[in-house]
Amino acid sequence: KAGVTQTPRYLIKTRGQQVTLSCSPISGHRSVSWYQQTPGQGLQFLFEYFSETQRNKGNFPGRFSGRQFSNSRSEMNVSTLELGDSALYLCASSLRQGDNEQFFGPGTRLTVL
Amino acid sequence: GQSLEQPSEVTAVEGAIVQINCTYQTSGFYGLSWYQQHDGGAPTFLSYNGLDGLEETGRFSSFLSRSDSYGYLLLQELQMKDSASYFCAVNSGGGADGLTFGKGTHLIIQP
Q1: I need a labelling partner for A43 at 20 to 30 A (CA). Which of B9, B79, B90, B92 fits?
Q2: What is the pLDDT of residues B65-88, one digit of tens each?
Q3: DSSP letter (8 states) at residue B102
Q4: Cα separation of A9 and A32, whole Å?
Protein backbone atom coordinates (compact mmCIF):
# COMPACT_ATOMS: atom_id res chain seq x y z
CA LYS A 1 0.00 0.00 0.00
CA ALA A 2 1.46 3.35 -1.02
CA GLY A 3 2.18 5.85 1.74
CA VAL A 4 1.12 9.44 2.07
CA THR A 5 2.48 11.59 -0.72
CA GLN A 6 2.98 15.33 -0.72
CA THR A 7 3.79 17.66 -3.56
CA PRO A 8 5.86 19.61 -4.10
CA ARG A 9 8.67 18.50 -1.79
CA TYR A 10 10.43 21.85 -1.87
CA LEU A 11 9.16 25.31 -2.60
CA ILE A 12 10.68 28.78 -2.56
CA LYS A 13 8.38 31.79 -2.54
CA THR A 14 8.68 35.48 -1.78
CA ARG A 15 6.78 37.51 0.78
CA GLY A 16 3.26 38.39 -0.27
CA GLN A 17 2.85 35.46 -2.62
CA GLN A 18 0.50 32.57 -2.04
CA VAL A 19 1.15 28.86 -2.15
CA THR A 20 -0.87 25.66 -2.50
CA LEU A 21 0.39 22.35 -1.14
CA SER A 22 -1.07 18.99 -2.01
CA CYS A 23 -1.47 15.77 -0.04
CA SER A 24 -2.65 12.34 -1.17
CA PRO A 25 -3.55 10.09 1.77
CA ILE A 26 -3.12 6.36 2.04
CA SER A 27 -5.82 4.59 0.07
CA GLY A 28 -8.89 4.12 2.24
CA HIS A 29 -7.93 6.82 4.72
CA ARG A 30 -10.58 9.48 4.97
CA SER A 31 -9.03 11.87 7.47
CA VAL A 32 -6.25 14.27 6.57
CA SER A 33 -4.52 16.55 9.05
CA TRP A 34 -1.97 19.25 8.38
CA TYR A 35 0.87 20.34 10.64
CA GLN A 36 3.53 23.02 10.53
CA GLN A 37 6.95 22.06 11.86
CA THR A 38 9.60 24.63 12.77
CA PRO A 39 12.69 24.36 14.98
CA GLY A 40 11.30 26.89 17.43
CA GLN A 41 7.68 25.84 17.73
CA GLY A 42 7.88 22.16 16.90
CA LEU A 43 4.90 20.40 15.35
CA GLN A 44 1.78 22.55 15.39
CA PHE A 45 -1.66 21.44 14.31
CA LEU A 46 -3.20 23.40 11.45
CA PHE A 47 -6.44 21.61 10.61
CA GLU A 48 -8.12 18.28 10.06
CA TYR A 49 -10.45 17.30 7.25
CA PHE A 50 -12.79 14.35 7.17
CA SER A 51 -15.35 13.63 4.48
CA GLU A 52 -14.57 16.92 2.74
CA THR A 53 -15.36 18.95 5.87
CA GLN A 54 -12.98 20.78 8.15
CA ARG A 55 -13.48 19.16 11.54
CA ASN A 56 -10.87 20.90 13.65
CA LYS A 57 -8.72 23.97 13.23
CA GLY A 58 -5.61 25.03 15.08
CA ASN A 59 -4.66 28.52 16.18
CA PHE A 60 -3.39 29.86 12.89
CA PRO A 61 -4.48 33.02 11.09
CA GLY A 62 -7.06 32.94 8.34
CA ARG A 63 -4.29 33.13 5.74
CA PHE A 64 -4.02 29.38 6.24
CA SER A 65 -6.83 27.44 4.65
CA GLY A 66 -7.46 24.03 3.23
CA ARG A 67 -9.91 21.75 1.56
CA GLN A 68 -10.50 18.10 0.94
CA PHE A 69 -11.84 16.49 -2.18
CA SER A 70 -14.20 13.57 -2.60
CA ASN A 71 -11.26 11.20 -3.13
CA SER A 72 -9.85 12.35 0.25
CA ARG A 73 -6.96 14.21 -1.33
CA SER A 74 -6.34 17.50 0.41
CA GLU A 75 -4.78 20.84 -0.35
CA MET A 76 -3.71 23.62 1.93
CA ASN A 77 -3.25 27.19 0.88
CA VAL A 78 -1.28 29.98 2.49
CA SER A 79 -1.94 33.48 1.22
CA THR A 80 0.11 36.63 1.67
CA LEU A 81 3.19 34.70 2.71
CA GLU A 82 5.34 36.00 5.54
CA LEU A 83 8.94 35.15 6.37
CA GLY A 84 7.72 33.29 9.46
CA ASP A 85 5.76 30.88 7.30
CA SER A 86 9.01 29.17 6.31
CA ALA A 87 8.61 25.66 7.68
CA LEU A 88 8.12 22.01 6.93
CA TYR A 89 4.44 21.37 6.24
CA LEU A 90 3.42 17.84 7.06
CA CYS A 91 0.29 16.06 6.06
CA ALA A 92 -0.95 13.01 7.95
CA SER A 93 -3.73 10.62 7.11
CA SER A 94 -5.74 8.22 9.21
CA LEU A 95 -8.72 5.94 8.76
CA ARG A 96 -11.06 7.90 10.97
CA GLN A 97 -11.39 11.39 12.32
CA GLY A 98 -9.33 11.90 15.45
CA ASP A 99 -7.38 8.65 15.15
CA ASN A 100 -4.32 8.47 17.36
CA GLU A 101 -2.26 6.61 14.78
CA GLN A 102 -1.57 9.02 12.00
CA PHE A 103 0.59 8.29 8.97
CA PHE A 104 2.74 11.21 7.94
CA GLY A 105 3.94 12.17 4.50
CA PRO A 106 7.50 13.37 3.80
CA GLY A 107 6.44 17.00 3.99
CA THR A 108 6.82 20.09 1.86
CA ARG A 109 9.73 22.32 2.77
CA LEU A 110 8.56 25.92 2.19
CA THR A 111 11.07 28.74 2.20
CA VAL A 112 9.80 32.31 2.09
CA LEU A 113 12.33 34.94 1.03
CA GLY B 1 -4.69 25.64 26.19
CA GLN B 2 -2.49 22.63 25.85
CA SER B 3 1.11 22.17 26.92
CA LEU B 4 3.41 19.18 26.91
CA GLU B 5 6.84 19.09 28.48
CA GLN B 6 9.59 16.69 27.54
CA PRO B 7 13.39 16.96 27.78
CA SER B 8 15.00 18.55 24.76
CA GLU B 9 17.87 16.09 24.59
CA VAL B 10 18.86 12.74 26.09
CA THR B 11 22.11 10.85 25.59
CA ALA B 12 22.48 7.11 26.09
CA VAL B 13 24.85 4.28 25.26
CA GLU B 14 24.23 1.58 22.68
CA GLY B 15 22.69 -1.49 24.32
CA ALA B 16 21.40 0.46 27.30
CA ILE B 17 17.89 1.50 28.34
CA VAL B 18 16.57 5.04 28.18
CA GLN B 19 13.35 6.66 29.40
CA ILE B 20 11.87 9.79 27.86
CA ASN B 21 9.34 11.53 30.07
CA CYS B 22 6.37 13.63 29.08
CA THR B 23 4.11 15.69 31.30
CA TYR B 24 1.03 17.39 29.97
CA GLN B 25 -1.59 19.98 30.81
CA THR B 26 -4.61 19.80 28.57
CA SER B 27 -8.21 20.86 28.66
CA GLY B 28 -9.32 17.49 27.36
CA PHE B 29 -7.56 14.14 27.28
CA TYR B 30 -8.25 10.98 25.36
CA GLY B 31 -4.77 9.51 25.29
CA LEU B 32 -1.04 9.91 24.81
CA SER B 33 0.82 8.90 21.67
CA TRP B 34 4.49 8.68 20.83
CA TYR B 35 6.11 9.36 17.48
CA GLN B 36 9.65 8.94 16.21
CA GLN B 37 11.24 11.23 13.65
CA HIS B 38 14.65 10.74 12.10
CA ASP B 39 16.49 13.76 10.73
CA GLY B 40 14.97 14.66 7.38
CA GLY B 41 12.23 12.08 7.77
CA ALA B 42 8.55 12.04 8.59
CA PRO B 43 7.19 11.28 12.06
CA THR B 44 6.19 7.65 12.47
CA PHE B 45 3.76 6.32 15.06
CA LEU B 46 5.24 4.24 17.88
CA SER B 47 2.56 3.69 20.50
CA TYR B 48 -0.63 4.91 22.13
CA ASN B 49 -1.87 4.80 25.72
CA GLY B 50 -5.54 5.50 26.32
CA LEU B 51 -5.62 3.91 29.76
CA ASP B 52 -3.20 3.91 32.68
CA GLY B 53 -0.45 1.37 32.53
CA LEU B 54 2.24 -0.01 30.33
CA GLU B 55 1.99 -0.86 26.63
CA GLU B 56 4.81 -2.94 25.17
CA THR B 57 5.77 -3.17 21.51
CA GLY B 58 9.02 -5.01 21.01
CA ARG B 59 11.93 -2.98 22.37
CA PHE B 60 9.67 0.00 22.99
CA SER B 61 7.24 0.43 25.88
CA SER B 62 5.06 3.36 26.81
CA PHE B 63 3.48 4.18 30.14
CA LEU B 64 0.67 6.48 31.18
CA SER B 65 -0.57 7.79 34.51
CA ARG B 66 -3.66 9.93 33.94
CA SER B 67 -3.84 11.00 37.58
CA ASP B 68 -0.30 12.39 37.33
CA SER B 69 -0.71 13.75 33.78
CA TYR B 70 2.49 11.92 33.00
CA GLY B 71 3.77 9.37 30.58
CA TYR B 72 7.04 7.99 29.37
CA LEU B 73 8.57 6.10 26.48
CA LEU B 74 11.05 3.38 27.37
CA LEU B 75 13.53 2.17 24.80
CA GLN B 76 15.49 -1.00 25.56
CA GLU B 77 18.56 -2.56 23.95
CA LEU B 78 19.33 0.73 22.27
CA GLN B 79 20.66 0.61 18.73
CA MET B 80 22.38 3.33 16.76
CA LYS B 81 19.34 3.52 14.48
CA ASP B 82 17.29 4.68 17.48
CA SER B 83 19.04 8.05 17.25
CA ALA B 84 16.11 10.31 16.40
CA SER B 85 13.67 12.79 17.88
CA TYR B 86 10.79 11.44 19.93
CA PHE B 87 7.54 13.32 20.36
CA CYS B 88 4.72 12.77 22.80
CA ALA B 89 1.31 13.89 21.59
CA VAL B 90 -2.01 14.34 23.32
CA ASN B 91 -5.34 13.63 21.71
CA SER B 92 -7.68 16.08 23.38
CA GLY B 93 -10.74 14.93 21.53
CA GLY B 94 -10.95 17.55 18.84
CA GLY B 95 -11.53 21.26 18.84
CA ALA B 96 -8.66 23.60 18.13
CA ASP B 97 -5.97 21.17 19.09
CA GLY B 98 -6.19 17.97 17.08
CA LEU B 99 -3.09 16.09 18.11
CA THR B 100 -0.97 18.42 20.26
CA PHE B 101 2.71 17.54 20.11
CA GLY B 102 5.50 18.19 22.56
CA LYS B 103 8.61 19.94 21.29
CA GLY B 104 10.41 16.62 20.98
CA THR B 105 13.36 14.90 22.65
CA HIS B 106 16.50 14.46 20.60
CA LEU B 107 17.96 11.07 21.54
CA ILE B 108 21.68 10.68 20.96
CA ILE B 109 23.09 7.15 21.05
CA GLN B 110 26.79 6.77 21.73
CA PRO B 111 28.72 3.60 20.86
Answers
A1: B79
A2: 999 999 999 999 999 999 999 999
A3: P
A4: 18
